[in-house]
């Protein structure tokens, strides 16, 4: 029996916080042991396979939510075809999600989808950009009129 690396096991176990290591090992060894090192290779591989299979639905759900978010980002006018720098720049904005797209969890992706739908309902990014430009122009006019008033009175 070759020396095993238990990194994969502990990474999978971390995804299932409700599972007890000793009970899991006993289940796959038919109660023979609760120690990882005393498991047979076949038992260990079967246990790893079962843990990976239990983790699979979350990967499918993650893919579904990522796809849903990318669809809405595309609707807002951002090119989503092999344009990861632009997607990450948009999503990393503190007003959107605050971190790169690939670092978002399922819960964060759900929030992002709701936020993108709200932006889309309110007219999309173009209306936000137009408002920003209008605000900048009005602020500049106010500043100009303020500076004109102060120079006239001086």
Explain the overall architecture.
There is one protein chain. This protein is an all-alpha fold and 154 residues long. The chain folds into two domains: 7-122, no CATH class; 126-154. The protein contains six helices and no strands. The chain has helices at residues 7-14, 21-28, 41-75, 84-91, 106-121, 124-153.
Please render the helix and strand layout as text.
Blueprint: H1 7-14, H2 21-28, H3 41-75, H4 84-91, H5 106-121, H6 124-153
Helix pairs in contact: 1-3, 3-5
Query: How many strands, which pairing sense, and closed or not: the largest β-sheet?
Result: none
Distance from first to last alpha carbon: 92 Å
Class based on secondary structure composition and strand pairing: mainly alpha
Residue windows where pLDDT falls under 50 for at least 5 positions? 147-151
- In round numbers, the mean pLDDT is 83
Radius of gyration: 27 Å
Written as H for each helix and E for each strand, in order along the chain, the element string is HHHHHH
Considering the chains and any ligands shown, give keywords for the structure.
6 helices, 2 domains, 0% strand, 68% helix
Write a brief structural summary.
Helix content is 68%, strand content 0%.
């Amino acid at each position: 029996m070759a020396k095993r690396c238990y990194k994969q096991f502990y990474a999978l176990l971390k995804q299932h916080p409700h599972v007890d290591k000793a009970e899991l090992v006993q289940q796959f060894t038919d109660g023979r042991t609760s120690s990882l090192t005393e498991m047979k290779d076949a038992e260990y591989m079967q246990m790893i396979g079962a843990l990976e299979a239990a983790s699979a639905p979350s990967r499918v759900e993650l893919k579904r939510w990522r796809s849903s978010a990318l669809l809405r980002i595309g609707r807002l006018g951002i090119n989503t075809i092999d344009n990861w720098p632009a997607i990450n720049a948009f999503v990393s904005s503190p007003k959107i999600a605050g971190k790169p797209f690939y670092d978002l969890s399922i819960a964060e992706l759900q929030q992002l989808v709701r936020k993108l739908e709200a932006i889309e309902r309110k007219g999309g990014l173009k209306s936000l950009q137009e408002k920003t430009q209008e605000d900048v122009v009005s602020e500049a006019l106010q500043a100009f009129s303020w500076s004109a008033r102060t120079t006239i009175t001086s």
